[in-house]
Design goal:
The protein contains 6 helices and 6 strands, in the order βαβαβααβαββα. It is α/β, with parallel strands linked by helices and 186 residues long. Strands 1, 2, 3, 4, 5 and 6 form a 6-stranded parallel β-sheet that branches.
Length: 186
């Protein structure tokens, strides 16, 4: 079992690419929420054993996908016992536009984490916001609360911007570093 588990929904494959990059950076394991909003057998046990849980969803109509919401609603059984209390938590989202109201999705994740009494980790990255910055720079979308990426609506998953993949990998590295700092401490 991994100390870091990334639970995510991806409607068209773009968010999956970001999840894979976060996993590559963090060494975490992936759990996909399927098209019907279900998770594989053993998911709840895997999440319970994890030290860190990372949430991921595309931003649809200003918030998480209904499939991710179904997973989140099912987590109320864990909430009731505060089973994720003091676990580390982070989140990421992708949409077709640079803004796309992605912050609403991150706020949803933060609220979910706070209801579970978890400890939230932001990106810890400065934005690439100078005139010389390009779309392939780290944190070009410029989020602090969690990872935001943007993939044009007519792009395939293989066309996710390199800068966003690199940012996701670095975000995963940060999550792994924070997780390592908390392991064995009390």
């Amino acid at each position: 079992m991994s100390d870091i588990v990334i639970v995510y929904h991806s409607g068209y494959g773009h968010t999956k690419k970001i999840a894979e990059a976060v996993a590559a950076g963090s060494g975490g394991s992936l759990i996909a929420v399927d098209a019907d909003g279900n998770v594989p057998d053993g998911t709840w046990e895997q999440l319970q054993a994890a030290r860190t849980i990372v949430f991921g969803s595309p931003t649809y109509m200003g918030t998480v996908s209904w499939q991710f919401k179904k997973f989140a609603d099912a987590s109320s059984k864990v909430w009731f016992t505060q089973g994720w209390k003091d676990k580390i938590c982070a989140g990421f989202t992708n949409s077709a536009t640079m803004n796309g109201d992605k912050l609403s999705t991150l706020h949803y994740f933060i609220t979910l984490a706070m209801q579970h009494s978890m400890l939230w980790v932001g990106t810890g990255m400065m934005p690439s916001n100078s005139k010389a910055a390009t779309r392939n720079d780290i944190n070009y979308v410029g989020s602090f609360s969690g990872l935001m990426t943007a993939t044009p609506s007519d792009a395939t998953p293989d066309e996710v911007v390199k800068g966003d993949i690199d940012t996701a990998r670095k975000f995963g590295e940060r999550i792994a570093d924070i997780t390592a700092r908390f392991i064995g401490t009390k």
